[in-house]
UniProtKB/TrEMBL annotation:
One GO location term (cellular component): cytosol
Species name: Nitratireductor indicus C115
UniProt entry tagged with the keyword Coiled coil: no
The ACT domain, residue ranges: 282-357, 363-424
Official protein name in the record: Aspartokinase
Pfam families to which the protein is assigned, alphabetical: AA_kinase, ACT, ACT_9
Length: 424
C-alpha cells in the first residue's frame, strides 16, 4: 500500500464525462488499497473565461484602463477549481468511493500575499492524512491557497501542478502522478520530430531545464518544488483507459518518472532537445569596458521586468571598449530598446543592433558533466546543415544555441538524431 497524490489538468476534467473517467482512475488506485489525495484544475478554458470576465468588468467600470484589484481577481479565478473539486467528489461518491472536496483555505494551504502569483509557504496536511487513513479521498482544488490577509490567493497560471507537488510533499506521498493530455515527457517535441521517444525517466534538473525552455508539460515552479522536496513526480495520460492492463502497476506505470538522478541507472549523455521560439537578439557595440557597465545596462532592463537570457560579452580589443550581445523575448524587444536608449549616454555604447524572430535550441543532459565533446558534436552537425550560430551559452547540463527562426525545426531534428535520440 502506498500514498499517492493524483493531479488532473484542465483537459482531463473538461466535461462531465471526463470527470467520470478521472473518477475511474482514482477508484483504480483506492481499490488497490492506496491512500489517495487528488488535486484538480479548472475545466479547460474556464480560467481563461474567468480572467476575461475580470478584464472586461474592469474596462467597463473604469476609464478604459483594465485596472483591477488583485484580491478580487483571485476571488473570481479561484472559482474554477472549486467547481471541479466538488464535481469529482460527487462522481467518486456515486461510484462508492468515500470522497470530500477541499478548497485551499480549508486545508489550509498558506501562501504569501502576492495575489495572482502567490507562493505556497506551508501546507498543514494532517487532517487530509488522517482522513486518507480512513479510506477517504481528499479532492483538493488546485491553484489556490489562503494569504496572510485571510483571502484566497492564486498561484499563477498553471499553478495547480505546483499545488499537487506541494500537497504531495506535505502528506509525504510516495508519488505525485500528474495526469495530463500527453502520455509523458519526450526527448523533443513530437510535432517537430515524429521519431521523438517518451523518456521512462528524467532527472529533476533536466526537467527543470526542459520546462523552462518551453516543454509545457509542467509549471516550472512545480519542478523546482519537486526537486527541493524530492517528490517523485510521474507524468502520464488521463486519456488512457483507466482499467487497461498495467495502468495500476505501481512499480512501472506508463509515463515518465521525474526523479533524483541517482535513480536513473542507464544515463544517457544527452536526454533531450528543447527549443524556445520568439527570442530577440540585441547587440551593443563599443561598450565602455569598466566596472559597473553591466549593472548599468541590465539593472534598468530588470527594473522594466524584461527577462534577459543569453549574455555574451567579448574581450575588448584595446582595453577600453567591448561588444555585448544578449537576448530578450521578442515581445519585449521594443520596450528593451526604449530602456537602452535612456541609459545609452550615461553608460556609453555606440550602435545597437537588434533582431527578433530568433530561436534558442538547447541540448540537455546530466551526462554532459562527465563527457567531453558534446558541444563540438552539436556545432559540427549544425554546420553540416548550413545553420549559422549567432550565440552560444552553456551550463553544466545544457548547451543553448541561438539561430535564425526558419532553421528551428531542422536544428531540432538534426540535434535529436546526432545524439542518437531517434526511435529505433
Ligand atoms: N486553472 C489554472 C490555469 O488555467 C491553474 C491550472 O490549471 O494549473 O492556469
Ligand atoms: Mg497545466
Amino acid at each position: 500500500m502506498a500514498r499517492i497524490v493524483m493531479k488532473f489538468g484542465g483537459t482531463s476534467v473538461a466535461d462531465i464525462d471526463r470527470i467520470h473517467n478521472v473518477a475511474r482512475h482514482v477508484k483504480r488506485e483506492t481499490d488497490a488499497g492506496h491512500e489517495v489525495a487528488v488535486v484538480v484544475s479548472a475545466m479547460s478554458g474556464k480560467t481563461n473565461e474567468l480572467v476575461g470576465w475580470v478584464q472586461s468588468m474592469a474596462r467597463t467600470a473604469g476609464s478604459g484602463t483594465p485596472f483591477y484589484d488583485a484580491r478580487e481577481y483571485d476571488a473570481i479565478v479561484a472559482s474554477g477549481e472549486q467547481v471541479t473539486s466538488g464535481l469529482l467528489a460527487i462522481a467518486l461518491q456515486s461510484m462508492g468511493v468515500d470522497a470530500r472536496s477541499w478548497q485551499g483555505w480549508q486545508i489550509p494551504v498558506h501562501t504569501d500575499n502576492a495575489h495572482g502569483a502567490a507562493r505556497i509557504l506551508d501546507i498543514d496536511g494532517s487532517e487530509i492524512v488522517r482522513r486518507m487513513g480512513t479510506g477517504q479521498v481528499a479532492v483538493v482544488a488546485g491553484f489556490q491557497g489562503i494569504g496572510p490577509d485571510n483571502r484566497v490567493a492564486t498561484l499563477g497560471r498553471g499553478g495547480s501542478d505546483t499545488s499537487a507537488v506541494a500537497v504531495a510533499a506535505a502528506v509525504k506521498a510516495d508519488r505525485c502522478d500528474i495526469y495530463t493530455d500527453v502520455d509523458g515527457v519526450y526527448t523533443t517535441d513530437p510535432r517537430i520530430e515524429p521519431r521523438a521517444r517518451r523518456l521512462p525517466k528524467i532527472s529533476f534538473e533536466e526537467m527543470l531545464e526542459m520546462a523552462s525552455l518551453g516543454a509545457k508539460v509542467l509549471q516550472v515552479r512545480s519542478v523546482e518544488l519537486a526537486m527541493v522536496h524530492k517528490v517523485r513526480t510521474f507524468v502520464r495520460s488521463s486519456f488512457d483507459d483507466p482499467d487497461a492492463p498495467g495502468m495500476g502497476d505501481f512499480e512501472n506505470p506508463p509515463g515518465t518518472l521525474i526523479c533524483d538522478e541517482d535513480e536513473i541507472v542507464e544515463q544517457q549523455v544527452v536526454t533531450g532537445i528543447a527549443y524556445a521560439k520568439d527570442e530577440a537578439q540585441i547587440s551593443l557595440r563599443r561598450v565602455a569596458d569598466r566596472p559597473g557597465v553591466s549593472a548599468g545596462i541590465f539593472g534598468p532592463l530588470a527594473e522594466a521586468n524584461i527577462n534577459v537570457d543569453m549574455i555574451v560579452q567579448n574581450i575588448s580589443e584595446d582595453g577600453s571598449r567591448t561588444d555585448m550581445t544578449f537576448t530578450v523575448p521578442s515581445g519585449d524587444l521594443d520596450k528593451a530598446l526604449a530602456v537602452l536608449a535612456k541609459v545609452r549616454d550615461t553608460v556609453g555604447f555606440d550602435v545597437v543592433q537588434s533582431e527578433a524572430g530568433l530561436v534558442k535550441v538547447s541540448v540537455i543532459g546530466i551526462g554532459m558533466r562527465s563527457h567531453a565533446g558534446v558541444a563540438a558534436t552539436a556545432f559540427k552537425a549544425l554546420a553540416e546543415k548550413g545553420i549559422n550560430i549567432r550565440a552560444i551559452t552553456t551550463s553544466e547540463i545544457k548547451i543553448s544555441i541561438l539561430i535564425d527562426g526558419p532553421y528551428a525545426e531542422l536544428a531540432v531534428r538534426t540535434l535529436h538524431s546526432v545524439y542518437g535520440l531517434d526511435k529505433q
